Amino acid sequence: xSADDHTxxxxxxxxxxxxxxxxxxxxxxxxxxxxxxxxxxxxxFQQIQKYEKGSNRISASRMQNIAQVLGVPVSxxxxxxxxxxxxxxxxxxxxxxxxxxAVDIFSTPEGVALARAFASIEDPKVxxxxxxxxxxxxxxxxxx
Length: 144
Known about the structure:
This protein is mainly α. It has 9 helices and no strands.
């Protein structure tokens, strides 16, 4: 290994970032700290941080444990995951890749605060009104 191999850190893959953001989203939704999730899995909260950022890939067995602790199926973590378009084109199933909104939202303190607040709204009608309000605000920005 050369010295460059140690200094060049590989960026997380889009799928690893997406899966990590879904772990973070679910953990926050159920009101669990990184420390508590780490304790349940037998790892440090720093390891949970690395999983959530996508900088450490989650093994299949660890993902199964995380899904059990957070009360979701493993497939939850892949919902809306970005696709490798070169593979999709090669087999004839290409379409537009979905935007990875969860990664963007949970990369800011404001996004985390918004998600926590939104998750605490119990009335589905009120949730719908919040979504309508935000949509209206965004539409108003686009017109300006």
